[in-house]
Specification:
The protein has 475 residues and is an alpha/beta fold. The chain has 17 helices and 26 strands. It starts with a helix and ends with a helix.
Length: 475
């Protein structure tokens, strides 16, 4: 028995945070303690949900919703029952932009399981994810221009609906509801007759005006877009409904928040001050800063701009430089070195190469080499690929090249959201996070060299924790 129970005070209520990510599902239980919020338990499961697309072939990137929900059920079954029974609020986040279709009255069926009741998807399509490539640039340019501050891209929910409308119209006739995968989960938990979507997810679908919080219905109607599939939109942080069953032992009637964007929840989990900027380098890389209160994004998108504005909480926006080139660039470089070694008839493990190149770069404090690392292109300049310039005989060692490559990754991100702009926004410190930054000291040195602010590491970004925190603070 805890001290608070012994003293006659009720045990602190738990908040459950769930994140339905691209490769895994995570759940975290948060409890209020004297020193603030504490993660009492957490659990993560790989979804292994990727599946072939029947309609779009190799360009389609889809996931099996049953597998995603199975991973979610496994996660919750692994959490302690006695704590789930104390859950009063549930926060849900997930991968943005994607779309799943379902039949309103046959979205799922509830069944008994070892830990209470749970739901299984019924008449539900695959999830067409944010990585989907079926909408070619030619196809996208044939669509009406959105009244939105975000440029339309392949993998965005509304673009995918247009694709079905033109290529497979019969597919859409089978369904009468749609949302992101996390909107679907919230709709099932609360038995919502019409899905409810946060401004964060709506903006990520395209054809949504964040200023007046409404879909571009006039533009969409002119092209016979199935308007009835668009969810209703609400504010992030608001309550979507209450659980209709005792889900995995969580009491019936627990409040469920409107589904949130995983990016916003990740930032929320670590950003405490407006004067902080968040630098995350994992597979890709992002640099994020809060815009001043009252900021409104431009009416129309600027496709050549490297910065995107994401709706955050309480009407605020985040300015985000989202680079497609992060840890994946280093991984490609290591793979190239491994392949060259193999071609020379030698053997070396990639993990061993990674350790050695970092060690070699730590011994080279400087490098005159200049590496533009954009081997994966960038959304605002997809045609500009990587290059190496200023090659001198003195800078050809593995250490020099690795040092220059790490610097290039940070400089590329910095060119997208320059230091001058961070200063104008009032940034005083950088919060560094992400797997690539954690395991690479050279990358950390270059961050500290390029940014004229103190850099703090170890603030882990976690969307499930962020989703729970949002609900805790709204409680």
């Amino acid at each position: 028995m805890s001290g608070s129970e012994a003293a006659g005070r009720p045990a602190p209520a738990c908040v459950l945070g769930i994140d339905l990510g691209t490769t895994s599902v995570k759940a975290a239980l948060l409890v209020g303690a004297e020193q603030g919020l504490v993660v009492a338990e957490s659990c993560s499961r790989e979804t292994q949900a990727h599946t072939n697309s029947l309609e779009a072939g190799p360009q389609g990137v889809e996931q099996n919703v049953r597998r995603i929900i199975r991973a979610l059920n496994e996660c919750l079954a692994a959490l302690p029952q006695q704590q789930l029974q104390k859950v009063s609020h549930i926060g849900v986040s997930g991968q943005m932009h994607g779309i799943v279709f379902w039949k309103k009255d046959k979205g799922c069926k509830w069944t008994e399981c070892g830990t209470g009741t749970t739901f299984e998807p019924e008449e539900v399509s695959h999830l067409i994810t944010w990585q989907d490539r079926r909408c070619s640039p030619t196809f996208l340019s044939s669509l009406p221009l959105p009244e939105s501050h975000i440029s339309l891209a392949t993998g965005f929910g509304c673009a995918t609906v247009y694709w079905y409308l033109q290529k497979r119209p019969d597919f859409l006739k089978s369904y009468d509801a749609a949302g992101t995968i996390h909107d679907y989960v919230v709709a099932m938990l609360c038995d919502l007759k019409k899905p409810l979507m946060s401004v964060q997810n709506a903006a990520s679908w395209g054809y949504f005006n964040s200023r007046n919080k409404s879909w571009n219905t006039d533009i969409l109607k002119k092209t016979n877009f199935p308007i009835h599939l668009l969810p209703e939109v609400g504010d992030p942080g608001s309550v979507a409904g209450r659980t209709i069953c005792a889900w995995h032992g969580i009491p019936k009637g627990a409040k469920v928040g409107i589904a949130l964007g995983d990016f916003q929840c990740s930032v929320y989990s670590c950003l405490t001050e407006r004067t902080d900027a968040v630098l995350n380098i994992s597979t890709s890389a992002q640099l994020t800063v809060s815009m001043p209160p009252g900021f409104q994004p431009p009416e129309t998108p600027d496709p050549s701009s490297a910065v995107t504005y994401f709706p955050y909480f309480n009407g605020d926006y985040l300015a985000v430089a989202a680079s497609l080139n992060g840890g994946n660039v280093l991984a490609t470089f290591v793979n190239m070195v491994a392949r060259w070694t193999e071609e020379l008839g030698l053997q070396a493990q990639e993990s061993a190469i990674y350790t050695k190149i970092i060690k070699a770069a730590l011994a080279q404090n400087d490098s005159k080499l200049s590496v533009n690392p954009t081997i994966f292109g960038e959304r605002h300049i997809p045609e500009q690929l990587a290059s190496v310039t200023n090659i001198a005989v003195s800078d050809l060692s593995l250490g020099h090249v690795t040092r220059a490559l790490c610097r290039g990754i940070v400089e590329n991100l910095c060119s997208m959201l320059p230091v001058q702009r961070l200063m104008e926004t009032g940034v005083r410190r950088i919060l560094g996070s992400g797997s690539a930054l954690a395991r690479n000291e050279v990358l950390r040195q270059e961050v500290e060299r390029i940014f004229p602010f103190p850099v703090v590491y170890g603030k882990d970004v976690d969307a499930a924790v962020g989703a729970a925190m949002v609900m805790f603070h709204r409680k």
